[in-house]
Amino acid sequence: MISTSDLAQTAGFNLRADNREGGWLDSRWWEQLQPASWRGVDFVMDAAENRAGRRTAVHEYPYRDTVWVEDLGRLPRRFAFQGFIVGDDVYQQRNAMIQACEQPGEGTLVHPTLGSVQCVLIEFSTTDRRERGRMVEIAFSFVVSGDIVFPQTSAATGEQVGTLAGALSRASAGDLSAQLGTMRIVPQQARAGVPAFGALATGVVDDPARALNATNGLQGYYGRYATGRRSTMLPASATPGSALAGSISSRQDVLAAVTRLTGVL
Question: Cα(202)–Cα(4) distance, rounded to whole angstroms?
């Protein structure tokens, strides 16, 4: 009785390839072939198909004669086989192959020309023919699977730095307030200068002309109030609304700072 593995090594002994005078065994490439198997169960390969390549997305644009092909990574490698198992125990071999195909997860596929490959079985079928009593035809479809990749967490460095900087600023302000509170005698000149400085800052940000001057430097023409007399132009994305909003925000910051400064006294 000839087993499937023996048949895989001797098939084609009397056939010719590449118009050679001898059989396939006279060619060096025949020595490189390996007996095909799936999870240790042998079979004979009739035909094998390998699929590979790249995943792409073709982007088409109006009024443009060319397209942009975006590369999305490598295609999963796929293997498809048409083969058979043969022998007086062909049905025992078939049952063993079915049992191997029903196992979950990856398995070892021995490809006759590619060697051992870790694959996942996608589809499997068997065919019994009346005129081929000792042989069962089989068909496989495999795909090479990779490891599961989970998303990784990373620290938001900018947010952490901002949080720590805010905590340091609040701690410093608290220490300064505590130290000033313990001082019994504060120099009169320093105390007298603080309200004057606060009033000066308040007067600058409360000046109505400041709101009008906020739009100076805008690119383009925005009316008679935007004279464009600034030496430095505002960004191209700036608008009258954004310029005025920035002026209002800076005014509120100055008023809040003056309030905190005078409240220490």
Answer: 96
